[in-house]
């Protein structure tokens, strides 16, 4: 229900280096690292619940071309990653990727931005909570605050009672984001048909631990921000991490 992976093999883009991160007893996830020794900042990139690095690497490359260093991961069951996509495997592998991220060249020489889209935004909130000292800022776009609320939002009206009974909140974003104390940018479209705009408002309002926060309200479909105006997007990112 929550993961729609593209299982087709992923080729390494020209600007990136493929790396495999081990987790658990014998599984691994595929990652791409866009190294940039003169980067404005380093981005830890968590994509949405569909596709794989074939398509999402194009987004990562946009930030690389804008002089950022980018580390992006595929979840278990996506692309070249082993195992199946489930909450436990996703969280375990993501934390393993965080530990690897710390060791990459140049990561500790500048600022580090935690960036998540849709399901990756919900996951980013957990990563930020579990690693409070690592990242300097967080950006989430089109994120939902809990698995239960997104399940309610996605089912038809006669079945809306079911998620309350059947879905467990694996990541309680509304609760976890309250502990975030650093700059935060929440991006959400009022026309988002996948994750209702109210979810972005809830996450923004629940981030009571930081005064350095912004809710950037946009229009267009789910995750429209980058395609809507990438120059403005970059301006927002630069302001968020203090490089403007």
Helix and strand topology:
Elements: E1 4-5, E2 17-23, E3 27-34, E4 42-46, E5 50-51, H1 53-65, E6 69-73, H2 87-101, E7 112-117, H3 119-130, E8 137-141, H4 147-154, H5 162-166, H6 173-176, E9 184-189, H7 197-206, E10 213-218, H8 225-228, H9 230-241
Parallel strand pairs: 1-5, 4-6, 4-7, 7-8, 8-9, 9-10
Antiparallel strand pairs: 2-3, 3-6
Which of globular, elongated, flat, extended, rod-shaped describes the shape? Answer: globular
Strand % is 15-25%
Rg, alpha carbons: 17 Å
Summing up helix and strand content along with how strands pair, one would put the structural category as alpha/beta
CATH class, anyone? Alpha Beta
Please give the alpha-carbon distance between the first and last residues. Answer: 40 Å
The SSE order reads EEEEEHEHEHEHHHEHEHH
The beta-strand count equals 10
- What spatial order of strands do you see in the largest sheet? 2-3-6-4-7-8-9-10
Average residue pLDDT = 90
- How much helicity do the residues have? 25-40%
Give the name of the CATH architecture. 3-Layer(aba) Sandwich
Poorly predicted residue ranges: 159-167
CATH topology: Rossmann fold
User: Largest sheet, if any?
Assistant: 8 strands, mixed
What is the CATH homologous superfamily assignment?
Alpha/Beta hydrolase fold, catalytic domain
Number of domains: 1
Total count of helical runs of at least 4 residues: 9
Q: Which labels suit this protein?
A:
8-stranded mixed sheet; 10 strands; alpha/beta; Rossmann fold; 244 residues; 9 helices
């Amino acid at each position: 229900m929550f993961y729609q992976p593209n299982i087709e093999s992923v080729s390494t883009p020209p600007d990136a280096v493929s790396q495999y991160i081990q987790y658990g007893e014998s599984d691994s996830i595929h990652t791409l690292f866009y190294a940039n020794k003169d980067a404005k900042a380093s981005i830890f990139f968590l994509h949405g619940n569909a596709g794989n690095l074939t398509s999402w690497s194009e987004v990562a490359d946009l930030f690389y071309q804008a002089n950022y260093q980018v580390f992006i991961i595929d979840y278990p069951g996506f692309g070249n990653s082993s195992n199946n996509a489930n909450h436990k495997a996703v969280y375990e592998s993501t934390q393993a990727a965080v530990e690897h991220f710390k060791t990459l060249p140049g990561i500790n020489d500048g600022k580090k931005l935690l960036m998540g889209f849709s399901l990756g935004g919900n996951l980013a909130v957990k990563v930020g909570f579990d690693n409070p000292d690592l990242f300097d800022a967080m950006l989430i776009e089109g994120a939902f605050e809990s698995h239960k609320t997104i399940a309610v939002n996605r089912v038809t009206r006669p079945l809306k009672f079911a998620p309350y009974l059947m879905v467990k909140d694996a990541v309680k974003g509304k609760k976890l984001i309250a502990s975030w104390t650093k700059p935060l940018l929440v991006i959400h479209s009022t026309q988002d048909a996948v994750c209702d705009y109210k979810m972005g408002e809830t996450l923004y309002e629940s981030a009571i631990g930081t005064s350095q926060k912004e809710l950037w309200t946009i229009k267009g479909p789910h995750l429209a921000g980058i395609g809507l105006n990438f120059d403005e997007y970059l301006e927002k990112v630069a302001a968020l991490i203090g490089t403007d």
